[in-house]
Amino acid sequence: MEREKALELLRTHVKNENLVKHCLASEAVMRALAARLGGDAGLWGLAGLLHDIDVELTAGDLSRHTLEAEKILSGHGLPPELIDAVKMHNEAAHGGRRRDQVFHRALAAGETVTGLITATALVYPDRRLASVKVSSVAKRMKDKRFAASVDRSIILECEALGLKLEDFLQLSLDAMLSVAPDLGL
User: Fold this and answer.
1) What are the respective helix, strand and coil percentages of the chain, to the nearest 5?
2) SS3 of 54, please?
3) Most buried residue, 52, 59, 106, 154, by CB count within 10 Å?
4) CA 47 to chain centre
5) 178 vs 172: CA distance, rounded Å
6) What is the per-residue pLDDT across 27-73, written as a single tens digit (0 to 9) for each?
7) Domains (ranges, CATH) in the chain?
């Protein structure tokens, strides 16, 4: 599937503009992770873009989130490995099945870190990613009260990918900076 078709599909199912921006940020991070880890940037980017396609449909219910995504994405001829990665970024819906592939872990960690980086940017006076330093994100990573809904343990799955936290944060921040205008940051 071409990227523009994927974006159109996402916008068909996701109306909240902040959620669309999250998906755009996740796409950028996934492309950067693919480049670093030897993945297919096009495939990984599409997974980042489409990973939350069912969030509004499932009202964020983690017991259902990604089950509907699987149905939606399967109907569009997307590769099974992309659909599986989308499914596994939310283990809660899959009966104890754990993320065990690089693609799965990259998507889970990559999409999760975008929330922490975005929240960090939003506390700066100018609300811009360009002002954010990795050290600030790392400091906020330790403060469980900051962006409390961001699951730090999922971000730390970057270590299972062979990336130190600071390197992962830098890669992710750089990726998000590359699409900052699209994110409004």
Assistant:
1) 65, 0, 35
2) coil
3) 106
4) 9
5) 10
6) 999 999 999 999 999 999 999 999 999 999 999 899 999 999 999 99
7) 3-183 (1.10.3210)
